[in-house]
Amino acid sequence: MDSTRVPRIAILGLHLEANAFAPPTVLEDFRRQCLERGAAISALARGGTSHLPMEIPGFYARMDATGPWEAVPLLIAAAPPGGPVAQVVFTGFMDEMQRGLAAALPLDGVYIASHGASSATGDEDSDGTIAAMVRRQVGPAVPVVCSHDLHCNVSEALVRAVDALVVYRTNPHVDMAARAAESADLLRAMLGGMRPHRAFIRLPLTPPSVTLLTAEGPYADLIHDAEVLMRDNPAVLNASVAGGFVFSDLPKCGMTVTITARDAATAEAAAHRLAHRAWAERERYRRPLTPLAEAVAHATAAGRGEAPPVLLADVADNPGGGGRGSTAYLLRALHKAGAQGVVLGVFIDPALAAEAQALGEGAAFEAVFNRVESEFSERFAAPARVLVLRDGRGVGRRGTMAGRRFDLGPSALLELAGSGLRVVVGSLRRQLHEPAMLELHDIDIGAARCVVVKSRGHFRAGFDEYFAGDRIIEVDAPGLTSPVLGNFAWKRLPRPVFPLDEDAVWAR
Ligand SMILES: [Zn+2]
């Protein structure tokens, strides 16, 4: 780099967690969440609350604080977790990013902020494809730093193409901005001439997401080890242990360890240390869920005042993992049991939300959930009343959504007649991980006896002020994101793989 010139850093990213069992993700899904280009990205990143992935403002803030630079933002596309992105959409993004990079040359660095578990209908390694394209465009000498969600499926192609990979270390994810800052620091060091080495190991281990929490458990211990490595050995620049996203159902699935270090030997040694511990403790990645009937019994006991309030997590229908947010197994069972003081959300049903909006607050009607049935989304009907109508827009106040805008689409709070069961119905597929999504509908969470969230784990950072870990029950119900991996017809996963296959082996 010419030292008299301000470094020019390109910024781009694709955020999608692709669930192979969900319908394809289309352009409209990106448009409704985040599809930003060029200078608009800089304005949003520096302008306070926005719908950008949190890495983007985090990266800008750190770069702005650490010296002069010129941001060259190209494209940030983010969609809710869903099926693989339609190939025509992915090709369009690729062309756009490639043309943007070519037009922006010469560049001094690139920051790729991607989720890391995307795939396209015609490309099983879309994240690797993007990274390889970036490398081709900028050449071997320009630093490329990439950050990923910890639910990422890392490919060899990606690790080859980038200089450093930085993966989240918290789940629920509250360190996006911190990891972006770490990426910025690595980029700054490379602008100063540092050239890191990487080591990479993939294990035949695909932990269910419910076992990947970082407050406690086997994954928390691994992350702690990674942080100790970084703290005690200055040659280790970054230690990333990615839990992976098994529902992508791809050969590249599995827990991965990627070390970025000042020398190759340090990188290799650190990667082996972490991988060996993960593999040695693989039995810890089994986790029993609570049967539906037992969970309902807890809810009814809480409703009768015989037990403290309880939170039921419908982990198998998590829109944050590609679920549709519209299974009715818990709703039906709680209704049948006459559970009192229950709030359930967010049930995704645009037709029902629209009908409630048309009827108006106070209207009584026959609420039909899932009038068009699909796999797991069976019809459920009950007399109901419209309590509250909203546009579904708000700003998060805690955990992963703090200070971030959300949009449920037109929404309604319904009360099922003759029961203590209230349901927040939304139009856009979003997981309930933020209390403001309920409070928007005038719900006092502290007064509820039972809260049912369609979320796998991120709700823990949002609802922790009401529910301690021992009052949270992960329910075993059918759904697209069930942690019971034996429930799925896997096609592309590497086999044997633990815990699906007892005979999985790893020898290195
Ligand atoms: Zn994640």
UniProtKB/TrEMBL annotation:
Keyword annotations: Hydrolase, Metal-binding, Metalloprotease, Protease
Cofactor note: Binds 1 zinc ion per subunit.
Leader sequence residues: none
Keyword Protease among UniProt keywords: yes
Ranges where the Microcystin LR degradation protein MlrC C-terminal domain occurs: 312-492
Gene Ontology annotations of biological process type: proteolysis
Keyword Protease appears in the UniProt entry: yes
Cofactor: Zn(2+)
Residues covered by the Microcystin LR degradation protein MlrC N-terminal domain: 8-299
InterPro entries according to UniProt: MlrC, MlrC_C, MlrC_N
Protein family per UniProt: Belongs to the peptidase M81 family.
Function of the molecule: Involved in peptidolytic degradation of cyclic heptapeptide hepatotoxin microcystin (MC).
Name this protein carries in UniProt: Microcystinase C
Naturally occurring in which organism (per UniProt): Siccirubricoccus deserti
Lineage: Bacteria, Pseudomonadati, Pseudomonadota, Alphaproteobacteria, Acetobacterales
